[in-house]
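Lecture notes, structural biology module. Today: joint structure prediction for complexes of two components.
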Amino acid sequence: MIAFAPQLINLFATLILLLSFAMISQRRIVSLINIFAMQGMALVAASFLLGYATHQTDLYVSGALTLVLKVIFIPWMLHRLIRKLNVRWDVETLLNIPTTMLVGIALVIFSFSLALPVSRLSHSIAGGSLGIALACVLLSFMMMITRSKAVPQVIGFLSMENGLIFAATTVTNGMPMIVEFGIALDVLVGVLILGVFMFQIREKFDSLDIHNLETLKED
Amino acid sequence: MSALGVLAQLLALLTALLLAPLLTGWVNQWRHWLQNKSAPGLLQPYRMLHKLFKKESLVAEHASPLFRMAPYVIFGCMLLASAIVPTLSTDLPLSPAADGIALVGLFALARVFISLAAMDVGTAFGTLGARREMLVGFLAEPALLMVLFCASMITRSTSLTVIVETLAHRELAIYPSLLLAGVAFTMVSLAENSRVPVDNPDTHLELTMIHEAMILEYSARHLALLEWAASLKLFAYSCIGLALFFPWGVAEAHSPLVMLLALPVLVFKLAVGGMALALIETASAKMRIFRVPEFLGTAFLLAVIGLLVNVLLGVG
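The predicted structure, tokenised, for the full assembly:
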């Protein structure tokens, strides 16, 4: 089991990357939330495995925190939110998924080439997956830029946070506990505030399209 | 070339010819069950072939020799393709003749011929089908190549037998890139075998058909050969998938006893694969034809990312 741990962690890293790409190409909001929950699950599995392989109990706590927050609570809240906002079956008109995917490939190449020299210096057992984690962060960032509706942008933000946690976990074998808790609390509060924002945007403009926010004054 | 190798090759050919219609029947049966319909018998494809071979063949008046020739060429391509994919044993005398790249070339050759034949008679549907087939093909082929290259990078060879031998008989290792390649391969094989998200093999609905539109003008033995070729293509693709991602159970060269065991293992793996295929087909809805390039583009990109992951993790 221990012997396979690095390979298995790389496998989960690849799974997270695959799900990032699935998010970019997904049009339906409901499926987007489900994919996000799956990505959280892969992250939890990677944390537990790393904790088991390096005998660090901190990582179990971190994994459990991710499980409760990102696999159960936040997806549940998002599901409730889109039901209340009545955008459950919304299909976003995305322009040019192939172009977005091509930019995604470029981002992957960029982050891999950036991470290769760094991961050679890392002594962590899963240092190789730094590039993948970096790619996930950049891909989620791109998703936030290309989406025009509020809910997918929030999911992009959360998925970026998944990538960051994964990068921190694999490269340093776990951050100090206080940092983990801080980030978790930040994300939770962020999502709650964004949820309130969405209701406000909706009430003001009758739509969740954030392009409405670009003009400051009402003509 | 040993006598045993020749025997293995002949056995592989015979297995492909006999198992291919059975696989098609099996997938159809499961698809009907999953959709709450009463299913046709498992042997229905054989009955179909038997019926078609007995009938008189009618060819359109203005058809050129190419139209008559095409079914034989396509059948030959598919037969050769299933002969070079290691199904039962890796000791195949034919396999040095063609590696993974040549295999993709064989599929391309068959595609060119079926498209030319479809346009030959000059009916509207044939031309439409041929164009759509080319639309699917131009993205499916590079994606399939990339999937094969992913495995080639790990095993340092493009020959399918070497790939299977290395993957199956080396100590167990997990290759994350094969995860991406596996998803890409599933998407490509759905498109290439005219399965549901891309094409519907059941209907002759003019708005959606691709494969059926191209073979509308054929009858009797020509049609039988084309149907059989389509089954062989599905069989070959399934075997490539099994060879790349679940290579266990294929007999090594110089071990005749294992070959006896390889057949039940292959049948079991194909049965599970066929069920999975029926499940995917039932769970997904038919795509708009203009979404197909996007679908296959995604497959291509995933396979390319698989290659990049190989580079990043320093595999091979």
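Point to remember: The two ends of chain A are 65 Å apart (CA to CA).
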